[in-house]
Write a structure and sequence with these properties.
Blueprint: H1 9-20, H2 26-37, E1 48-53, E2 66-70, E3 84-90, E4 103-104, E5 107-108, H3 109-119, E6 123-127, H4 137-154, E7 160-170, H5 172-182, H6 184-190, E8 197-201, H7 211-215, H8 220-227, H9 234-238, E9 250-256, H10 261-276, E10 281-286, H11 293-297, H12 305-315
Length: about 325
């Protein structure tokens, strides 16, 4: 049965704004929408380091191989007195669009998430990565892996704990983050090392061979265009569930109450696969949000999304022997 979306003034305002973004009124509409959707978090400029390059080899991209760091103060550190955990965040956009610097209504949506985490004693690295169809999905996985490896190498210089890394992503970014977190070959090749936890949010493409996902509205042609390379078994190669081993990190799976049915199915499939492999996994529904508004809920103090992430990162015990 298809889900009927109930009236939600935040959602109505948000989608009205998106519809008008192409018009000359987009700045006005965005400024009207954001007070209903967005809770701005402030952080001193001294705790933000922007535009750091995480890959300068071949091939390198001057804009996409970059990340921004959001740093907690020492006295707000979480698990220990002198270092703090770090979340590496991967944006969404259907694998074909998006950037860490996304702005809507004059606000930097992903930067706000970084500030929110830092304000709660958790460091954040918000990354960009190359987009399809200039590169393919394997290149995107490599970009995310390079970014995580860079953070592991350099975050200690800023006060973070390189042994307390979490990987988080929204939508397409959730698939890329999960692949890097769960694929042993990628982790070994790029020096990803041990991850404390994985946080996929409203993710797609965890199991590209799941027939029920397509029966619930997922588009086979949409995924085939993004993941098929040559004559390979693209469903198997690009699916996250086939990469899960006994050493999978603790995982918090978030999805929106009014997310698409096919994506809710993918959240369930990922949870079941992780549990079957013996990995700790928890699936949490975020009420009153959909696929788009859930990203804004991640940096709001009230509700389920943001507090769940903070609690998960703060409470998860890192095991350096899982993978290295």
């Amino acid at each position: 049965m298809r889900r009927i979306l109930l009236f939600n003034p935040w959602r109505v305002t948000f989608f009205l704004s998106l519809a008008l973004l192409v018009s000359s009124c987009r700045a006005v509409v965005g400024s009207l929408a954001m007070p209903f959707l967005y809770e701005e978090v402030t952080l001193p400029n001294a705790q933000i380091v922007r535009d750091l390059s995480y890959h300068e080899g071949d091939p390198s991209h001057p804009d996409k191989h970059r990340l921004d760091l959001f740093l907690p103060t020492v006295d707000s550190a979480g698990p220990t007195a002198d270092v703090w955990p770090v979340v590496v965040f991967v944006h969404g956009g259907g694998w074909t669009s998006g950037d860490r610097g996304l702005r809507f209504g004059g606000e930097d949506v992903y930067g706000n998430l970084g500030r929110y985490l830092a304000a709660h004693g958790i460091g954040a690295a918000v990354i960009s990565y190359r987009l399809q169809f200039e590169v393919d999905w394997r290149d995107q996985v490599e970009d995310v892996a390079r970014a995580v490896a860079w953070v592991r190498t350099h975050i200690g210089d800023h006060g973070g704990d390189p042994n307390a890394l979490f990987l988080m992503g929204h939508s397409a970014g959730a698939q890329l983050a999960s692949y890097v977190a769960l694929d042993r070959d990628t982790a070994a090749r790029f020096g990803v090392g041990t991850l404390c936890g994985l946080i996929p949010v409203s993710g797609a493409g965890f199991d590209l061979a799941d027939d029920e996902t397509y029966a619930l509205g997922g588009s086979l042609s949409y995924y085939e265009r993004r993941f098929r390379i040559g004559d390979e078994d693209w469903m198997r190669e690009a699916s996250v569930v086939g990469r899960i081993g006994h050493d999978a990190p603790d995982t918090l799976i978030l999805y929106a109450e009014d997310d698409w049915d096919s994506l809710q199915r993918q959240a369930l499939v990922l949870e079941e696969a992780l549990r079957a492999a013996g990995g700790p996994a928890r699936r949490v529904e975020v009420p009153d949000e959909d696929h788009y508004t859930v990203i804004l809920a991640l940096s709001r103090r009230e509700g389920v999304a943001g507090p769940s992430v903070v609690e998960f990162v703060s409470d998860t015990r890192c095991d350096a022997n899982k993978r290295g």
